[in-house]
Amino acid sequence: MNNTSSKRTVGVVFGSRSVEHDVSIVTAHQVMQAMRPEKYDVIPIYITRDGAWLTGAALRELSTFQTNNVAELMGVKKALISSDTTHHGLIINPTSGLFSRSQLQHLDVVFPALHGSHGEDGTLQGLLELADLPYVGAGVMTSAIVRDKIMLKALLSHYGMPVVKHTWFYRRDWVNKPDAVLEQIASELGYPVFVKPASLGSSIGVARAENADEARNFIHIAANFDRRILVEAAVEDAIEINCALMGHYDIRASVLEQPITWQEFLTYEEKYMRSEGAAGMKGAERKIPAPISDELTQRIRQMAVDAFKAVDGHGTARVDFLVREEAGEVFLNEINTLPGSMAFYLWQEEGMSPSDVVDELIKLAIDVHAEKRETLYNYKTGLIAHAAARGLKGIKK
C-alpha cells in the first residue's frame, strides 16, 4: 500500500485494440464511479484503438472520449505499466525528451476493465504477472480459456458439464472450402444455428442462421472478427438463466436472473443503445429471481460454482445457462469473467451496492496476490558454475 496515504492507489485500465473498445470505456467509468473516494486514489489508464497508453484526470470524464484526439487534451500524458518489478506501477512520459522527465506512479492494485481482445483474454493479466502487481479478476490461464468459446466448451465437456451441441472450423477452411463447411454444419447440427467468432463478446459478429444461405452470410461476417468460428445448434423453447459468482476458494453464487428478451437475439445495438444510458439497455429487461423451481435454482447455482472452480476462476464472473425446465435440460453456455459482466444488478439483490462489489473485488485481488507470494520463484542451482568449469558441451538440456 502507498506509504503516504491510507488509501489504495488503483489503476483502472480500459479501451485497447478491440472491437469492444467503446463498451470498455463505459464499464471503466461505471467502475471508477463506484470507487469510494475516501478509500481509493483512482488512476485512469486508457489504451487507444491504436494501442497507445495514456493517463490523466481528463480520462475520468466520459465526454473526453467524444473528441477525435484524446492524446492532445490538456493533462493527458503517455504512460506504460512497467513489467520491471522494481517500478511496481505506471511510468508516465516513458519516452521523455529534453524538456520533460519520466515519472513513476505507484499502483497498489490494477482493475482491468478491458473487454475482448488484448485485455480480457489474458494478455494484460500476463503483463501484470510479470510486473508482480495485484490485479482484480481472473488470472492468465482462466481469462484465456474462458474467452475462447471453443476451448471453454472442450474443458467443460471434459468435466462432464452439459454444453450445447456445436462444431467449429478455421477461417482458412471457410475461405478455401466453404461448401464443405456448410455440409459439416448441416450433417452435424442441422438448422437453425448460432454463428459466433470464437473469442468475442457483446454479440459482435454473432447471428442466428435459419438455413444454409443465412449461415453462409453470417460466417462471412464472423470470419472478419476471428480466425476460428464456432457454430452452435439452436436450443429451441429454452430460457436463459444467469448466475453471478464472487470469491476465490469459497465461491459465492448470486440470485438467478432470467433475461426476458433472450429469445429475441440481442444485437450489440439492442444491448447497449436501445435507450439513453446503460440503465435503459434492452438487456436490462429481466426477471429476478428467475421464475424456476427451488430444486433447479440450486442445481444451476452449484453448476456455476463447479464450472468456475474447473477453470480455476477467482474474482467475479457471470455464468449463462440455457434451460428447458420441463425436459429437465440445463446447458452451460458461457462464463463471462471480469469485466465481461460486473453483474452489479445481481449483487444488489444480495444487499451489495456497486461500491461494495468493487471493495470486495479489490480485497480478493490483494488476497490472491498474497497467496502467490507463498510460491517459490527464486531457486538457485550449481548449474552455471558447473557449465563454466566444464564448458557447455555435454550439458544435458
- Beta strands, count: 16
* Number of helical segments with 4 or more residues: 12
Query: Hey, roughly how much beta strand do the residues contain?
Result: 15-25%
Query: What's the CATH class label of the largest domain?
Result: Alpha Beta
Widest sheet: strand ordering: 6-5-4-3-2-1-7
What is the name of the CATH architecture of the largest domain? 2-Layer Sandwich
How far from one another are the termini?
A: 42 Å
User: Could you say how many structural domains there are in total?
Assistant: 3
Q: Under CATH, the topology of the largest domain is which? A: D-amino Acid Aminotransferase, Chain A, domain 1
Overall 3D shape: globular
Give the averaged pLDDT, no decimals. Answer: 89
Low-confidence stretches: 272-283
Structural class, please? Answer: alpha+beta
How is the biggest beta sheet arranged? 7 strands, mixed
Give the H and E element order: EHEEEEEEHHHEHHEEHEEEHEHEEHHH
Gyration radius, in Å:
23 Å
Going by CATH, the homologous superfamily of the largest domain would be ATP-grasp fold, B domain
Classify the helix fraction into a percent range.
Answer: 25-40%
